[in-house]
Amino acid sequence: MLELLPAPDVAHLLESSPPQSRSELWELIDDQSEGDVLQELSDEIQSQFLRTMDAEEVAAAAAGMDVDDVADMLQQLSEPVLQEVLDSMTLQDRTRVEQILNYADDTAGGLMNTDAITVRPPHTMDVVLRYLRRHSEIPEMTDNLIVVNRADEFIGLLPLSTLLVSDPHATVREMMVTDVEAIPAAMHDSEVASLFERHDLVSAPVIDQHGKLLGRITIDDVVDVIREDADHSLMSMAGLDEDEDTFAPVMATTPRRAIWLGINLLTAFLASGVINMFQDTLEKVVALAVLMPIVASMGGVAGTQTLTVIVRGLALGQIGHSNRNWLIVREVTVGLINGILWSLVVAVAASLWFQDPLIGLIIAAAMVINLLMAALAGTIIPLTLKRFKIDPALAGSVVLTTVTDVTGFLSFLGLATIFYA
Amino acid sequence: MLELLPAPDVAHLLESSPPQSRSELWELIDDQSEGDVLQELSDEIQSQFLRTMDAEEVAAAAAGMDVDDVADMLQQLSEPVLQEVLDSMTLQDRTRVEQILNYADDTAGGLMNTDAITVRPPHTMDVVLRYLRRHSEIPEMTDNLIVVNRADEFIGLLPLSTLLVSDPHATVREMMVTDVEAIPAAMHDSEVASLFERHDLVSAPVIDQHGKLLGRITIDDVVDVIREDADHSLMSMAGLDEDEDTFAPVMATTPRRAIWLGINLLTAFLASGVINMFQDTLEKVVALAVLMPIVASMGGVAGTQTLTVIVRGLALGQIGHSNRNWLIVREVTVGLINGILWSLVVAVAASLWFQDPLIGLIIAAAMVINLLMAALAGTIIPLTLKRFKIDPALAGSVVLTTVTDVTGFLSFLGLATIFYA
User: Which residues form a coiled coil (chains A, B) (predicted)?
Assistant: First the structure.
């Protein structure tokens, strides 16, 4: 049954399987299909299987894969195994893979493939059509032929759709599109993704710093980048990795989660330290202990909302110098309005509950303070982290809840100490 | 300067602008480019501008847009304006748009375009090439011609790449690919997205329930679906909408955030109610008030990690009947191990801090209980919500923190009451 399924579906099945059935399924896949399936798997799961294969098997699996996927795969191997696999490849394949390995995984160079079909300006459409017919097949996702000069420098694109509707005697020079820019190999992959998204590209040429054509990037690889970037914010805000295997075994998952819990424990002790300063007040008015989590919790939720909006805005490249101040003012205003609104509700509820208008006033004031702080922290923390090139989604959520917890307890218990002392 | 920028970049600039500069920029865009820019904007921002335009202006803007984008745009108009716009369109455009309007926005039918080029099986490659040459241009993202029979029913695809390398005398019937399935118009858009992602498609045909060809879906529209779906989980977990405009004015943002804060306030009062049951114990041992937020906070973080993994797994279609129990067991095991690990640390820290080994034991036990509950709640809540077709990302995070707060306070203060009474 497995043999009838296309490789991407087999890969999805593997990714949706707990460890034991995953190994069993993998055993059932025949050697020829291994490469096809491997290149569809996410990095973490791919490396699980790679660890069980020897260099020869890896080389065999690599034979049928796209060059960029081979390069991605090889980057997960240890240096000696990597060398062994490279040695067992044909010279042509090896040269291509090594060219991509020169670029980091998360750059245009690491995403590119070397299967572009190039043509030269003086040729006519007719010559190009005959040249194509000599190929037994054209690489997938070829929507453009790439026009280069004698020095292999990028000049422009000849869309297949233009080729098909043009006069056979027209030359490439007359029909090519030149108002397109090639992608520099060093460009970061999320920038590549936003170029593809904004300009609805299917493929785009990649050049080195001298303008020489290196290869092309295709939308299927870009879609993976978009998916990973979008997942990154979600997973990071919970201290997880976007590559996290949903079905990772206990022993792989536990340490990663443990670290995040440990960091949170530290910040929780910090908040407890703040409460500890107010032991005398708490002993006098035990209602304060009952109500204090409300102030901290509202601040945490308001701050997380702000943080999420800013983290997404940063990921989409929407936030810069010109608009950050507007955002801070907007968030503080929203925090103030919602602070006043809900603190009125809380004030009435708390006053009635404990038959004490003073406690209502105190919790209302503390909540307004904490919601204002949440708005400030929710904007300024990610913007500052981003400036220092620290991941705002990952570090932001720890720092933020620390700030809102501390502010919440400090303002509520501090005000109470002043008024009840 | 604005006139020199391509429409997608103008749209990005608009999306990155606070309200006032956004309106000013919009005024600067000439009437001809309005349609191009409009179709690149996200729904929420698009509808802001639509509200300022009359039916005639909307119809003019729609003239240059893709049919699926026109349909998307029109769905945001009120019924009378919609009718007015449709009336002012040419009969051909109107028929096309109305066909798409028949399908919900989030289905294959709502995503499709009607610009597919169709060919019939008996024709030769040469005839097809001559037929194409009669077009002045071929629609963007055309990687396949669609093969239909006389009744316009979908039969297969003729890739342009096959057309280009085939013998001119071969027929479409000989060269077409038939092991592809067309997409039913009623298919949900996230299912369409995962088909495109898994099978690296650039375009795919859409058929009605009788197999008749309706149009085609292209990867550029699918990329938008992927981006929205991925953003959905992130934004929903903070009670926000994935369409949320980063630069929405205060008056638009405040009410949406307020609702989420109000729901959180209710659940926070629930947790306070639990603490209130233990007033006597708190009065006796004030250290309990100092430490109790730690138990609740650790449960909240552990639960959010589990919830995030499950929400993403559900969004990727990885979780079903066969593997849900494995996941629950895995999460509970991870919770148990991390619970024991960190409760040991907490036990020592709390015992030393308050010079009281009993309080260390109590907090350790409460933390293990709460981390186990967090693991259970973090898996079972989203799986149950999903079964009842409630958004697991949106509802999950409220329900989860309520569970971990209540369990945290109840177990910690409950155990303390037993041991200190």
Answer: none
Interval B354-412: pLDDT, tens: 999 999 999 999 999 999 999 999 999 999 999 998 989 888 888 999 999 999 999 99
Q: Which of A396, A408, A226, A194 is nearest to A310 (CA)?
A: A396
Q: Per the structure block, which two tokens stand in for A223?
A: 């879609």
In chain A, residues with a C-beta closer than 8 Å to the C-beta of B289 are 275, 282, 286, 289, 292
Q: Is A317 left (phi over 0), alpha (psi -120 to 50) or beta?
A: left
Quick check: B265 and A342 CB within 8 A? Answer: yes
The pLDDT-based confidence of B99 (bands split at 50, 70, 90) is confident
Cα–Cα distance, A58 to A35 (Å, whole number): 8
CB contact under 8 A, A264 and B298: yes
Task: Among A276-280, B177-181, B276-280, name the one with the lowest average pLDDT.
Answer: B177-181
Pairing of β B154-159 and β B183-184: unpaired
Tell me how far apart the 2 most distant CA atoms of chain A are, in Å. Answer: 95
CB B380, CB B328: distance < 8 Å: yes
* Residue of B37, B130, B144, B202 best to disrupt the A interface, most CBs of A under 10 A: B202
What CA–CA distance (Å, rounded) separates B407 from B402? Answer: 8
Nearest CA of chain A to the CA of B81: how many Å? 29
- Express each pLDDT in B59-68 by its tens digit: 888 887 878 8
| Contact residues on chain A for B401, CB-CB shorter than 8 A | 297
Q: How far is A419 from chain B (nearest CA, A)?
A: 19
When CB atoms are compared, the residue of B269, B271, B301 closest to A349 is B269
E strands, B46-135, where? 118-119
User: Who contacts B80 (Cβ-Cβ below 8 Å, separation ≥6)?
Assistant: none
**Cβ-based contacts of B231 with chain A (< 8 Å):** 230, 312
Please name the residue of chain B whose CA is at the shortest distance from the CA of residue A248: B330
d(CA B121, CA B134): 19
How far apart are the C-alpha atoms of A305 and A374, rounded to whole Å?
9
Tokens of A206: 């990649």
DSSP assigned state of B18 = -
CB contact under 8 A, A257 and B318: no
CB B252 within 8 A of CB B242: no
Residue B134 burial (CB count, 10 A): 7
Nearest CA in chain B to A230: B230
CA distance A119 to A130: 12
A292-to-A297, B228, B274, B414 alpha-carbon distances in Å: 9, 37, 13, 19
**pLDDT for A100:** 84
Sheet with B213-218, side-by-side order of all strands: B183-184, B203-207, B213-218
Structure confidence by residue, pLDDT tens digits, A105-125: 889 998 998 888 999 999 999
Of B301, B323, B341, the CB nearest to A247: B323
Q: Minimal CA–CA distance to B117: which of B105, B126, B129?
A: B129
Q: What Cα–Cα distance (Å) separates residue B365 from each residue in A261, A268, B361? A: 16, 17, 6
Which domains can be identified in chain A, with CATH numbers?
2-102 (1.25.60.10), 118-219 (3.10.580.10), 250-420 (1.10.357.20)
Place of tokens 């809900």: A342
Q: State ipTM.
A: 0.88
Confidence at A135, pLDDT banded by 50, 70, 90: confident
A contacts of B238 (beta carbons < 8 Å): 301, 304-305, 307-309
CB B336 within 8 A of CB B367: no
Nearest to A272 among B161, B294, B312 (CB): B294
* CA angle at A107 for the pair A104 and A108, rounded to the nearest 5°: 130
Element (H, E) at B51: none
Binary contact (A16, B254; C-beta < 8 A): no
